[in-house]
Amino acid sequence: MRARSLAAGFVIAALLMLGLLAWLILLVPAEDGVREWTGSLNPGGWMAWTFPTALFFWVITALLLAFTWAAIRFPETPRKGVLGILTTRGDRLFISLLGSAFVNLAWLGLGGAPAWGGLLVSLIYAAAVFRWV
Amino acid sequence: MDKPVNNRAWFLVLPVLVLVAFSAVIPLMTVVNYSVQDTFGNNQFFWNGLGWFQEVLESDRIHAALGRQLLFSAIILFIEIPLGIFIALNMPKRGFWASLVLVLMALPLLIPWNVVGTIWQVFGRVDIGLLGHTLAALGLDYNYVNDPVDAWATIIVMDVWHWTSLVALLCYAGLQSIPDAYYQAARIDQASRWGVFRFIELPKMRGVLLIAVLLRFMDSFMIYTEPFVVTGGGPGNATTFLSIDLVKMAIGQFDLGPAAAFSLIYFLVILLISWVFYTVMTAQRETL
Question: Taking every annotated instance into account, which residue ranges of this chain make up the domain ABC transmembrane type-1 (chain B) (predicted)?
Answer without folding.
Answer: 66-277
